[in-house]
Structures are given as C-alpha cells and as structure tokens.
Design a protein that fits this description.
Order of helices and strands of chain B: EEEEEEEEEEE
Shape of chain A: globular
Structural class of chain A: mainly beta
Oligomer: heterodimer
Shape of chain B: globular
Mean pLDDT of chain B: 95
Distance between the termini of chain B: 37 Å
Low-confidence stretches of chain A: none
Mean pLDDT of chain A: 91
Number of helices of chain A: 0
Strand content of chain B: over 45%
Radius of gyration of chain B: 13 Å
Structural class of chain B: mainly beta
Number of helices of chain B: 0
Helix content of chain B: under 10%
Number of strands of chain B: 11
Order of helices and strands of chain A: EEEEEEEEEEEE
Radius of gyration of chain A: 14 Å
Chain lengths: 119, 114
C-alpha cells in the first residue's frame, strides 16, 4: 500500500473556484510530520506547510488552508478563490521514523496532483 | 538574500560516466537535502547533510554519494551512471536539520543520460 496517496492525479478548475487537494497517509508511528509542496511549471519546489502529528489544528494562510484529521489519516489542502498562478503540481509528503535524535526519518512523497486553473 | 543555487542547470552524460552536482545553500543555512525526481518514481529523498555530516540517507545504491563542506555548500556524486539516473535533482537548504525548519529549494539540475 502506498504510504502517501494523492488520489487526484489531475484537477482542472476555473479561476475563483475553490479547490481541495486530498492526501491520505499511512503510518504506524505516533510521531510524524506531514508536508505540502508546490511545483510550478518552472520546476522548483516550494515548501508550503509542515504539520506534526500532535498538532491537529487547522491552518489558514491567506487563500490556503489545511485540514489535518488523524482519525481519517488525511491532510487535505484547500485553495480558496483559485488563481491562474496556483497552477502547479502539488505534493503531499510524510516523514516518519522520527527517533529521539530525529535523524532516522523516512520521507515519502505522494505522486502529486496537477492543478490547472483556467482563466 | 540569494536563494539556493544549483549548478549546472543541465547536464548530459553517457552511461558509465560519473557526475558531480553542486548546491550552494542560502547563507546561514546548515542543512542541505537532495532529492531525485523522475516521471516513473516521482520525488524521492536522497540524503541530508547537516554541519558537514550525513544525517540521513534514502534508499539509493552506493553509487549515489554526497558531501558537505564547512561553508555548507554540498555536492552529490553519482558514479557509473545508468539510464535510469536521468532525472531532475533538487537541492533544498534550511536553517536547522529536517524537519525542524522550512526548506528552500533550488531550481534543480536536469541530468540526462544517453
């Protein structure tokens, strides 16, 4: 089974629509981190957010919001009022195996969701 | 403040050769991580260096190695290149070790193996 599943391979929306990108993860660890990254057409990765397993508070940053639910092992990402500049591939990632020194982690990325926002 | 700089941007090699990629982190950043991105395998973690020490390594063969210098600049080396090593190699730097600090990525080095 995949450790990080991004079931939506591609999503296409029209500007100003809200869009939610799904991420479901699998781990037996109690201490882990979840991440979202953005990769625009230019290719560089952009770090968006990090959430540790003990912090289930939802987070909002401008038009971006994240919903972390341990009960369903999901860490979904919502873009409100999407814009053309939001067009990119979005990756969800899981870091597990965090020991006391934090150095033996295993980092797994999802396959990514290609979001296209049309004008 | 200059961002993460990766050189070269593009590289073409043939099977069996070796290659060295370079990453200059943001000034003051002590952690450098390397990732490989391919259409088939997606994004995969290669290794992380912090204060000149390899802190963690992903599931890659020994042909993939790296190092970090006292100025935090990092190099990764791939020996005996295979066709499957064709990929975008991304470097990220952060102030502290992963996952404690946000990462900043370079534009990547696109390596093509002929």
């Amino acid at each position: 089974a995949q450790k990080v599943t991004q079931a939506q391979t591609e999503i296409s929306v029209v500007e100003k629509e809200d869009v939610t990108l799904d991420c479901v993860y699998e781990t037996r660890d109690t201490t882990y981190y979840l991440f979202w990254y953005k990769q625009p057409p230019s290719g560089e990765l952009v770090f968006l957010i990090r959430r540790n397993s003990f912090d289930e508070q939802n987070e909002i940053s401008g038009r971006y919001s994240w919903n972390f639910q341990k009960s369903t092992s999901s860490f979904n990402f919502t873009i409100t009022a999407s814009q053309v500049v939001d067009s990119a591939v979005y990756f969800c990632a899981l870091s597990e195996g965090i020991d006391s020194g934090g150095s033996n982690y295993k980092l797994t990325f999802g396959k990514g969701t290609l979001l296209t926002v049309n004008p | 403040k200059a961002g993460v700089t990766q050189t070269p941007r593009y590289l073409i090699k043939t099977r069996g050769q070796q290659v060295t990629l370079s990453c200059s982190p943001i000034s003051g950043h002590r952690s450098v991580s390397w990732y490989q991105q391919t259409p088939g395998q997606g994004l995969q973690f290669l290794f992380e260096y912090f204060s000149e020490t390899q802190r963690n390594k992903g599931n890659f063969p020994g042909r993939f190695s790296g190092r970090q210098f006292s100025n935090s600049r990092s190099e990764m080396n791939v020996s005996t290149l295979e066709l499957g090593d064709s990929a975008l190699y991304l470097c990220a730097s952060s102030l502290g070790p992963f996952p404690g600090s946000p990462q900043h990525f370079g534009d990547g080095t696109r390596l093509s193996i002929l």
